[in-house]
ABC-2 transporter permease
Amino acid sequence: MWQLIWKDVMIQRGSIILLAVLLICIVIFGANIGMPAFIFLLLGALVAGGSFIAKSISRDEDNHTLLFVTSLPVSRKDVVMARYIGTLISMLTAIVFLYIVTSIVMWTFIPIADFFVSTGTALVIVLGVTTLLFPIYFWLGYDSMKYVLSGLIIFYTLLTFLTSLPSVQRVIKWIVEWGYSSILMLLLGLMMILYLVSMRLSIRVLGFTDL
């Protein structure tokens, strides 16, 4: 399993370097225009997570890697677990990298509470998306996953526009007053449970899927 994760890293090493440069640019740009650290940390974490997932799956699809790997003496369970665990590792690595870069650029350590809120929100979103997408990918293939991903992008776009409505803003204000950090911790816990359920489902799906 770990060899499969390392395979993704080595295949994407060029993209990872470019992604690191992009994240640095996002932080520098955000800091220079006075953007709250919460915003560009959230944006950076989302870009990092989404980019790594999309690139790794896209490259595997182009090279028919899934078909090749499953023909080797590697269990399909390991193939699935490598995808899920690799996603978590990439997100956590990006989060640590963002914290270091942001602290250097702003010449101060970002308060852990603010850092948790921004990166935790990004983690919930990325885990939520992958929880839905990975079983579809392992069952129906890359093309079907792309359609679902397009739908999710449209959904999140509409959700963003909805935040401008007064009623939605009142709900957001209530959430913040009630304690967003507490809600976020609950969401992270729930999302991790769903993530494990999704991984288990993907293992079962890939087990009976003909590639």
